[in-house]
Amino acid sequence: MTAGEQAKAKTEQAEGKLKEVAGSAIGNGRMAAEGQAEKSTGDAREAKEKAKDAFKH
């Protein structure tokens, strides 16, 4: 996993989680859903990079 991709994945996960929690706290379902989607995107990016690393070796 390249450092740049790893950082991007972690950033997406953190921003998504923050948006999800903030949306839930203020009762904004759309914001919470967007945060969950963003977190999932980060999770998918991280999984993709881990899979690429597994096939390199």
UniProtKB/TrEMBL annotation:
<protein>
    <submittedName>
        <fullName>CsbD family protein</fullName>
    </submittedName>
</protein>
<feature type="compositionally biased region" description="Basic and acidic residues">
    <location>
        <begin position="36"/>
        <end position="57"/>
    </location>
</feature>
<dbReference type="InterPro" id="IPR008462">
    <property type="entry name" value="CsbD"/>
</dbReference>
<feature type="domain" description="CsbD-like">
    <location>
        <begin position="5"/>
        <end position="57"/>
    </location>
</feature>
<dbReference type="InterPro" id="IPR036629">
    <property type="entry name" value="YjbJ_sf"/>
</dbReference>
<feature type="region of interest" description="Disordered">
    <location>
        <begin position="1"/>
        <end position="57"/>
    </location>
</feature>
<comment type="similarity">
    <text>Belongs to the UPF0337 (CsbD) family.</text>
</comment>
<feature type="compositionally biased region" description="Basic and acidic residues">
    <location>
        <begin position="7"/>
        <end position="20"/>
    </location>
</feature>
<dbReference type="Pfam" id="PF05532">
    <property type="entry name" value="CsbD"/>
</dbReference>
